[in-house]
Design brief:
Layout: H1 10-19, H2 23-38, H3 77-104, H4 110-136, H5 149-156, H6 161-188, H7 194-223, H8 228-239, H9 250-255, H10 260-268
């Protein structure tokens, strides 16, 4: 799919990519938006209307089921392959959540949109790394059931950029920082050791993504004269309904610019 280059509106292009159902077309669109961003050719004027997106563009497969319906993955070969597929699905959803951040939240500085276009591009690279490995193993994205938790939170926070920045990068994506070292250890002792390096690429980039969420969350709190810890706790209670669960990867969260007060908050949990 080739973009019509006469229209360089970042919001329209992000929406087109967000709603694109064919995986390869979505990736190509993200690549092109990323190139236009790097060439300083995008227009960030808020001309494109905003609509709530309950279901973004996605292929017919995988089938989406309740998280509780997905069987626990064992240490068999197919169990490891299903784990790779689950991570691949997370990265596909992460492309959409980054695109939605670009499309949805207007009147932000241009740097905000540039940050999330960069995130969408990196998530698309992660997705391709994982899907290519699945293909190498004789499978592909869509072969197993998946759940929709990441997009569900994205949709639930579409009313306010502050809520989105607080909960999607700083909670859901940050959980990836907590979980990755343990998952790497599992793969290191299996025939799927290639995943250790793939996960390291993703882990390094995700530190940057969480850091972007932290940056904009704190800027928004400062702009609105809100206490970051109190605001974050209120949003966690509103949308998650319980305290965050550890263990937390404190060193990775420090690299992602969690403040000392935020680290203390997490450790107190």
């Amino acid at each position: 799919m080739i973009l019509k280059l006469e229209n360089m509106n970042a919001f329209k292009l992000a929406f087109n990519a967000l709603m694109c159902a064919k995986t390869i077309d979505k990736i190509n669109l993200v690549d092109q938006i990323h190139t236009l961003k790097n060439q300083s050719k995008l227009d960030y004027q808020a001309e494109h209307p905003i609509t709530s997106v309950k279901t973004p563009g996605r292929p017919k497969k995988p089938d989406l089921v309740r998280f509780q319906s997905i069987p626990k993955r064992d240490k068999s070969d197919i169990g490891f392959i299903k784990t790779i597929h689950a991570i691949c699905h997370i990265e596909f959803n992460a492309i959409n959540l980054a695109l939605d951040a670009v499309y949805r939240f207007r009147n932000m500085p241009n740097a905000f949109y540039q940050d999330w276009i960069q995130v969408a591009f990196e998530e698309s690279q992660h997705f391709q790394l994982l899907n290519n490995y699945l293909i190498e193993l004789g499978y592909q994205y869509g072969d197993f059931d998946a759940h929709n938790g990441l997009w569900k939170m994205t949709h639930e926070t579409d009313y306010d950029v502050l809520a989105r920045m607080a909960l999607v990068p700083r909670v859901l994506e940050a959980r990836g920082l907590d979980a990755t070292p343990k998952i790497q250890r599992r793969f290191k002792n299996s025939k799927f050791e290639k995943m250790v390096d793939i996960l390291q690429v993703i882990f390094n980039d995700e530190i940057g993504h969480v850091k972007i969420g932290n940056t904009w969350f704190h800027k928004l709190c400062q702009q609105r004269n809100l206490d970051p810890i109190q605001t974050f706790d209120q949003l966690v209670q509103k949308h998650i309904g319980e305290s965050l669960r550890g263990p937390f990867n404190i060193e990775a969260r420090k690299l992602a610019d969690f403040s000392k007060q935020e680290i203390n908050y997490l450790q107190a949990l």
